[in-house]
Design brief:
The complex is a heterodimer. Chain A is of the alpha/beta class. Chain A contains nine helices and 14 strands. Chain A has a single domain, classed as Nitrilase/N-carbamoyl-D-aminoacid amidohydrolase (4-Layer Sandwich). By secondary structure, chain B is of the alpha/beta class. Chain B is globular and about 50 Å long. The chains are: A alpha/beta, B alpha/beta.
Chain lengths: 287, 270
């Protein structure tokens, strides 16, 4: 399968202009025979929204924006980020990732871990999601995570236990730390790569990470999107800090080969994890 | 505390370019003192936007810092930017002759605010975004005049300690004379920052880095080997100067109040 990574810089608070950008790049990727294009976290809105959250929110079933992207998804599958307002729960907003294919919304992941400390304040403006769930993508199973979700390795574990061979992370990670003189990027980028390599190798899964670039309110988004193969090998890394659009062929059979060679998935014991977590949670509730 | 200079250069030039353009400016304007901070900032701006897009203002007060004025002129020539010199002595003298004061800090603040006032006037005349040149050391200890040198459109260097600005300056090959000059706010003839603050920038930056970046407590920093009196003084300077780093508090009355719960990004719709 050929996929496209769109390492873009969305315009803050301008869904109209970002939609245009999405449609153009999706068309370009489709022309290049890609089967899937991936955009960063909150790619339709920009990241540092604060009180703009309700103003840029989308109700997927009733949205003209989504309708246009659904039409595009007849040519190419799309994964992108949006502020989602559920029709059955108005006034509650999620930092969501949507997977569109064949003209339909096939899956939505709502960010579970909302960073709310230091420079981050997502918990002030968003409600958190409650599930990590794999879903069919082409001939494989995929899982979607949003930025900080991936820094909690339990999220990837849930997706692995659910059968995901593709872990797709959309991100708006600002760069921090400039002490490393060897790197062309921020020190924080290395943490994402460390996690990408570890999760891909020990899950026998592709880890596909699409980060954004650009500057919002002084914070620079780090770029450096990447793909790790199910053997933990780096197969693509986009430049740090610069806009980029790249195509990469990935071989879904590699998931099978990796899991045949290193049967971590086969030997996994989710019931033991469940049992242990159950005990911990019961204990916590007793306190 | 070392910095990756090529990376910092890339981030800061992108910052100047993007934030200026987003605010609708094709040009920047900067007050040049002949000191390190304004020189490094001017170098960054020229790398970001090109020499045709930076305007330098030199604003001497009497003969307080003649060396600074000639170095600032030299920077203007080296960078091939347009520079104008405006002597601010008449208006400052006129004010203090009718309202005399001995306190040099009050005089210094008035001078800094006069420069700010001219920068904002020229910003409007030239349609140029004002680049602030306060570094992280100054911002943290409050070594700057509120609505004076602290005022600006954007500040590219506010997350670099003074010693890191020096490192960046060496990387950018700014003139040796400027790099080796004793830092001065030019508040009175012969004034130096380090004498006034009572600590060397080396030591001050290391204490600040421990307290702020590493989030150590005052006690932990003292335990690490710094003189107790100095650490406590730095911590106190940080605490007492918070008002210089914030918009003033607004008395809350309604459900939705500017600064409290009317929260929009700076780069709204840009």
């Amino acid at each position: 399968m050929k996929l496209a990574l769109a390492q873009i810089s969305p315009v803050l608070g301008r869904v109209d202009r970002n939609l245009e950008m999405h449609l153009e790049l999706a068309e370009r990727a489709a022309k290049e025979k890609a089967g899937l294009i991936i955009f960063p976290e909150l790619s339709l809105t920009g990241y540092s929204l604060k009180d703009l959250v309700p103003e840029v929110a989308i109700r997927p079933e009733a949205s003209e924006v989504l309708a246009k992207l659904q039409v595009a998804s007849r040519q190419i599958d799309l994964i992108f980020g949006l502020v989602e307002e559920r029709s059955d729960n108005p006034g509650v907003f999620y930092n969501s990732a949507a997977y569109l294919t064949g003209g339909k919304i096939a899956h939505v992941h709502r960010k579970v871990f909302l960073p709310t400390s230091g420079m981050f304040e997502e918990g002030r403006f968003f409600a958190s999601g409650h599930d990590f769930r794999a879903f069919p993508l082409k001939s494989s199973q995929a899982g979607l995570l949003i930025c900080r979700d991936f820094m909690h390795y339990s999220s990837s574990y849930c997706l692995l236990a659910d059968g995901a061979g593709l872990m797709i992370i959309i991100s708006a990670a600002p760069g921090r730390g400039t002490a490393n003189e060897e790197s062309q990027g921020f020190e924080s980028s290395q943490k994402w790569e460390l996690m990408g390599q570890a999760i891909s190798y020990f899950s026998g899964a592709y880890v596909i990470y699409c980060n954004r670039v650009g500057i919002e309110d002084g914070a620079t988004f780090a770029g450096g999107s990447f793909i790790y193969t199910p053997d933990g090998q780096l197969s693509l890394r986009l430049p740090y800090l610069e806009e980029n659009f790249s195509l990469q062929e990935i071989d879904l059979d590699q998931i099978r080969r990796a899991r045949k060679n290193r049967p971590y998935k086969r030997d996994d014991r989710p019931e033991v994890i469940w049992h242990s977590l159950g005990r911990l949670l019961r204990k916590e509730n007793e306190d | 505390m070392k910095i990756n200079c090529p990376l910092v250069l890339k981030v800061l030039t992108s910052f100047i370019r993007e934030e200026s353009h987003k605010a609708g400016f094709e040009h920047n304007i900067i007050g040049l003192s002949g000191g390190l901070d304004s020189t490094v900032c001017a170098y960054l701006a020229v790398k970001a936007m090109g020499s045709k897009h930076l305007f330098g203002l030199i604003m001497p007060f009497k003969n307080y810092d003649q060396e600074g004025v000639s170095l600032a002129e030299e920077v203007g020539q080296l960078l091939e930017i347009k520079v104008e010199k405006i002597d601010i002595s008449p208006q400052i003298e006129s004010y203090f002759s009718s309202h005399p004061v001995d306190n040099p800090v009050l005089r210094g603040n008035k001078i800094a605010r006069e420069r700010m006032s001219i920068l904002y006037d020229y910003s409007a005349r030239l349609e140029a975004m004002i680049l602030g040149t306060s570094n992280k050391t100054e911002l943290l200890i409050g070594y700057g005049t509120i609505h004076g040198d602290l005022a600006c459109g954007i500040n590219p260097m506010g997350d670099l300690y003074k010693t890191q600005v020096q490192e960046l300056g060496r990387y950018l090959n700014v003139p040796q004379k400027i790099l080796s000059r004793k830092p001065t706010a030019g508040l009175w003839p012969g004034q130096t920052d380090e004498d006034e603050i009572g600590l060397s920038y080396e030591e001050l930056d290391r204490i600040l880095f421990s307290l702020v970046d590493e989030r150590l407590t005052v006690e932990e920093v003292i335990k690490a080997g710094y003189e107790e009196k100095k650490v406590r003084r730095v911590a106190e300077l940080i605490r007492k100067s918070e008002y210089k780093r914030k918009m003033p508090p607004i008395a809350k009355l309604s459900e939705r109040t500017v600064g409290h719960d009317f929260l929009y990004p700076y780069d709204w719709g840009k």
